[in-house]
Write a structure and sequence with these properties.
By secondary structure, the protein is mostly beta strands. 0% of the residues lie in helices and 51% in strands.
Length: 131
């Protein structure tokens, strides 16, 4: 599973967190979370719960990446139908060890089967949880 985006810990459980009109909402697709005060707003099958930052135990943004031959690659897209993932780097030295092709200005990409990589994550604190 590839996690990317903003997440928060509330009641010892991780949820995606979204903001709208300077308010923060936890997001869940688990209908049992309705018992915790989550409600349906706009999307069918998706529940939201408005929370104050002070109610959160932690908040962070996750950036997934993979390492190939010692070089860091960002995950650009994943095709579930064929199981291929597109990885991108701007490191020009990667072309010496990884079979990449040019992609945009000063970028290189490679498409490989998802099962050939290990997904790693950078977790950057947000919303005042930096310390």
């Amino acid at each position: 599973m590839i996690r990317k985006g903003r997440f928060a810990i509330w009641n010892e459980k991780e949820y995606p967190i979204v903001s709208r009109d300077r308010k923060y909402f936890l997001q869940s697709e688990n209908l049992e979370d309705a018992q915790q005060g989550f409600i349906s707003l706009e999307q069918e099958g998706v529940l939201f719960k408005e929370v104050a930052i002070q109610e959160l135990e932690d908040a962070y943004e996750i950036f997934p990446y993979a390492m190939l031959s010692g070089y860091r690659f960002a995950m650009e897209s994943y095709n579930e139908q064929n199981g291929m993932i597109t990885l991108v780097t701007n490191n020009p030295y990667a072309i010496k060890k990884v079979d990449v092709s040019p992609h945009g200005k000063d970028e290189y990409q490679i498409q490989i089967p998802f099962e050939q990589i290990t997904v790693l994550e950078d977790r950057i604190p947000i919303l005042g949880f930096e310390e």
